Amino acid sequence: MGNKVTDDQPRVYFDCNKCPAYCCSVYERVQVTKRDITRLAKHFVVSFETARRRYTKLHAGERVLRRVADEIFPETCMFLDQKKRACTIYHARPAVCREYPDRSRCSYYDLLQFERRQQDDPNVIPLVQITFREVKAKTVNDENGSERVWEWEPEKKR
Ligand code: SF4
Ligand code: SF4
What we know:
By secondary structure, the chain is α+β, with helices and mostly antiparallel strands. It has helices at about 20-25, 35-45, 50-55, 95-100, 105-120; strands spanning about 55-60, 60-65, 65-70, 75, 80, 85, 135-140, 145-150.
């Protein structure tokens, strides 16, 4: 029998220990604040400036964690243990990592479970890439009437 879940316990339907760490890998940007850099500096016992230079970079005007080539995805966070697929700075990780996914389900975990069932393979890892586009809605009128269509803006580097 599993653990009894009571109403004052948050229900969580994903298990990061069974996931290849999509969230650490598919996003180009893991945003860091001054507070995050201060925490990193304390963790590694280095100055704020050293932590900022060594562990972060500017990406489209935003300060983010540095990334490295990965064994599964094209890139991942420099702090991911690529064998264990776990964070090596868990107690010093940035606020965005602490908050993610900020709900009871994780879409990447759902996708992983879905594909493992579909492929009938408990070890398969679906590779996904996420990108963001701006879209504009407009109404097109022709002989068939009016239709709402979406116009894609050119891809933006984030
Ligand atoms: S993608 Fe979801 S399940 Fe996987 S490590 Fe991140 S939060 Fe956990
Ligand atoms: S700091 Fe840790 S939790 Fe955050 S992206 Fe990097 S490996 Fe993942």
